[in-house]
Amino acid sequence: MSILSLEELKAGMVLASDLVASDGRMLFRAGTALNERHLELLERVGVARADVETPATDLDAETLLAVEGYVRDFFLYVNPDFDPCIHMFRVAMNLTAQNVSRGWELPDQGIRRAADVEHLEDIFVKGMGDPATIVRHETELSSFPDIFFRIKEVLEDESASADRIAKVVSTDMSLSAKLIKLVNSPLYGFPQAIDSISRAVALVGGKELSTLALGISTINYFKDIPPELIDMKSFWRHSITCGIFAKILAGTQHGLSPERFFIAGLLHDVGRLILFKKLPYASSEAMLFARENSIPLAEAELSVMDFIHTDISVPLLRSWKFPRGLADMINFHHNPMEFPNPLDPAVIHVADALANAVEISQGGMYVMPALDEEAWNLLGIDAESFIEDAVREYAEQIDVIMSAFF
Length: 406
Ligand SMILES: [Fe+2]
Ligand SMILES: [Fe+2]
What we know:
Layout: E1 2-5, E2 19-20, E3 26-28, H1 36-45, E4 49-52, H2 61-74, H3 83-101, H4 109-112, H5 131-141, H6 146-156, H7 162-170, H8 173-183, H9 197-204, H10 206-221, H11 232-251, H12 258-266, H13 270-278, H14 280-293, H15 297-305, H16 309-319, H17 324-331, H18 343-359, H19 373-379, H20 383-405
Antiparallel strand pairs: 1-4, 2-3
Helix pairs in contact: 2-3, 3-18, 3-20, 5-13, 5-16, 6-7, 6-10, 7-9, 8-10, 8-20, 9-10, 10-12, 11-12, 11-18, 11-20, 12-17, 13-14, 13-16, 14-15, 16-17, 17-18, 18-19
Bound molecules: fe (ii) ion (FE2) (2 copies).
């Protein structure tokens, strides 16, 4: 999980990926625990660096134990015997240990449990509003950006030419600028720079690019949420992380368009944004409740409000006439197997779990929601080989993609 130079390698470290000599010769397989003899050999054959699982061996036993306790707290709701969960746990452990060895301090119990946070005076009264009323209030008050509907129109028009798509998207300057940044990011990994929307349409595809544009214009709608309520940067980081994992997961399945999954991942918690706008106290209360009681956020929402954020996204996306496929993935990300065709929402569900697992290492505040085992099994992927590779790919992409958006 971390590339170290030969001088930094120590006996006992475990290779995270196959180690190959400069002439292509396989030296050691991933999973090999390096010993002194191996290290001598690496020096002899001139290997300069290796990808090892944990560079955190400089952490003393006590700190490692504290890291493990910290991560374990977040995995309270996760089945410890389910193979993918074991791998997610390992990933979270490794990343957290790495961050701690770089100087990051584990948040203490007081912070994790929000012990010193003052509760808001004006507590929302349960039953004050049902999801449909809350959404109606929102959609009556503010209109959704016009560009969204124009893009949706071309997206739904099978015969829309690449030219027309490029024209519609180009009418919004800030949208086009973000799109250009995004198609030049590692999300696509095109070798050459793409400098115009029409070029982007040609390379990425009209449908894919309009789906991206749709996602970006939805994000813009929420740019005014006050920072006192939630750190929007970490909200979007979680969303983009989920999008990246959704795209990677979609790539393992036959016939799924990765862009759609990136956008569904990006917007999976859109219901929470309406809650911040409409029920700021109740949603802050739910976040505190989750931390104080070490329960997943959705459980806390249910206790505080009697519904969860996907109950809000259902009427919301319906009233915005969001493309059905995208809306279904978002609406069912907490209960994918209840959707008649569960594969699509299962991808978002698993991506959300992976996003949560990697965020633990940076002080993510909520307990991991349970991973739906049926949903994981539906994807038919091998946890052992998939999870660590996917996390590596995510680590390479997240900062650049974040900067394309903000
Ligand atoms: Fe969610
Ligand atoms: Fe989420």
